[in-house]
Amino acid sequence: MNIQVKQVNRFFLLATAPFLGFLLTLWISSHSLDWNTGNTLFESQEDTTIVEKTRSISAGLSQAEETAHYTVSTIKKTANLYTQTTKAMNDIVKTTKEQAARPETIYNKRIVSRLGVPFQTFQSDRIRLELYKLNSGTYQGYAMKVKLKDASAMKMVLGNDSLGGSETTLHAVNRYGAIAGINAGGFADAGGSRYPLSTTVLNGNYLTGFEPSFKDLAFVGLSKSGKLIGGKFYSQQQLDQLQPMFGATFVPVLLKNGIRQGIPDKWKTSPYRAPRTVIGNYKDDQLLIVVVDGYNENGASGATLEELQNKLINLGVKDAYNLDGGGSSSLIFGGKVINHPSDKALRPVPTHFLFFK
What is the pTM of this model? Predict the structure, then answer.
């Protein structure tokens, strides 16, 4: 609005400049007249000259007055036209933005209609989080829908920021001041330390080098542009093309482009049911995280991977990847543990996906 006012004021100055110059010239001319007040009698020629100059000045002032009225009228009309044109352009821009955002709004409403009503939400200029409850009848859990407005609002961190270190997701969330967090990739214990499985990327760098996919392991993470990426990669060049910013490894891939992926036989039965942590995305790049509860890792509670595939498809998810589960499954939101860990306490793990205000 200030820019518009400055533009109008600049226009007024330019429009009135000729008129002001004209008045200044008349004023100077009037002061240059030689009024001889010392004589009581004036020569007739001088009287005639003075009268003519006076008439000329009077005529000039009348003309200037008419010019001023015309100029002011023109300025008002031009200013009104400028205001109307600016308003019309602003209305067009506003309408265009609303129409451009309409498909996204409609799609998001479709997603939400399948999830239900969120029981917790958080929104800032960088991120929007919505927390939902899931109850399929055979298992219970939670879904967190994430809209990354800024790619830097999601990060992966190491347990205690060290290779081989581990900590609970709650501890990592509190330590980094994050708004939410989940456990990430799988791990292997060695020498009293807990190491991430296979290919792990942190801040755009390979933590322990690239390792081709084997035994159905799959990489999952976020690209530098803030998009979920994942799958099996048999060369570093293949993964580098997706520009990974961070990511971890586990098994298996659940969905690709909305199509169920084959689940390895081992993971169909060992365990059959379990607490689970899954991350996926929608076609508009919103993320969906599902954390399923279970009272132990013996295979009698929680969800099967096939059940999660079906659920994710019903929710409209495009791509989905299974993260570490069982006692590792963790969902933190607003500084609180949302899920019910099967170990009755959170398990320290080496990698965490965190979400920031």
Answer: 0.74
